[in-house]
Amino acid sequence: MTRRTFLTAAAYSRILGANDRVGVGFIGYGLIGAQHVFDFKNQKDVDMVALSEAYQPRLEQGVATCGTRTKGYRDFRKMLEDRDVQAVVVSTPDHWHALMTMMACAAGKDVYVEKPLTLFVREGRWMVQVARKHNRVVQVGTQQRSGRHYQKARELIQSGYIGKVVSVRMTAYRNIMPGFGSPPDGTPPHDFDYDMWLGPAPKRPFNKQRGIYHFRWFWDYSGGQMTNLGA
Question: Is the pTM here over 0.85, yes or no?
Answer without folding.
Answer: no
